[in-house]
Amino acid sequence: MQTVTLSVHRFDSAAARLWVLSQMALARLSFRAMPDCGFWKLCGSGTGEGFTPRPNTAVWAILAAWPDAATAERRLDTAPVFRRWRAKASEAYTLFLAPTAARGAWSAQAPFRPTGTITGTTTGPVAALTRATIRPRFLRDFWRHEPKISAAIGSDPNVAFKIGIGELPWLHQVTFSVWPDTASMAHFARADGPHARAIRAVREGGWFAEELYARFRVTGTRGTWGGSDPLAKLERLAA
Asked: Each residue of 191-220: pLDDT tens digit?
């Protein structure tokens, strides 16, 4: 069963931030020489929780897809590229994900191989990923909607973890969030709020040149973010 990993890293010092910036070119060589990594992306983030057009030079991410969980665990433990990033980072956190649904394309590929669907009020944790290439002429419209969406996500008590990342500032955007169950995730996406209105505007206006929507079951985590495992919040929500 395919396993996807999202590894986020925080680099506090100026030297570490310069180092990871160079990795946007150099780390590509490591992944191209890794035959069992079927898909990978190196991403920066926005300020705050990532849902802004202003780049955050402290937070960077690696998204990768592996043929199975054992391979994912082994590569994160032994591959020099992951070991170097963790050694330089002040903090690192990885989520292990099993794809359950996916539609659309990313760099003209279908990178995730779902093994089934999660429906109804299935308990989680479950994750949602949205990736889009924004058409340049719609950049202003897209980022005009984004602050309201960010505020809605940030104020939702159900969200255990959230981050906005991207391959190219302003044009290529990825939103990722973890929820306690499919019901709370679906309610946020479909409720008549800023997120739903933005989705309608996107579809009616054809803002995206390419888009992908994926859902996952979170199968494990490693490390900390903000000093703890953010998914520990889900235990309090379920109590």
From this structure: 555 555 566 666 666 778 788 999 999 999
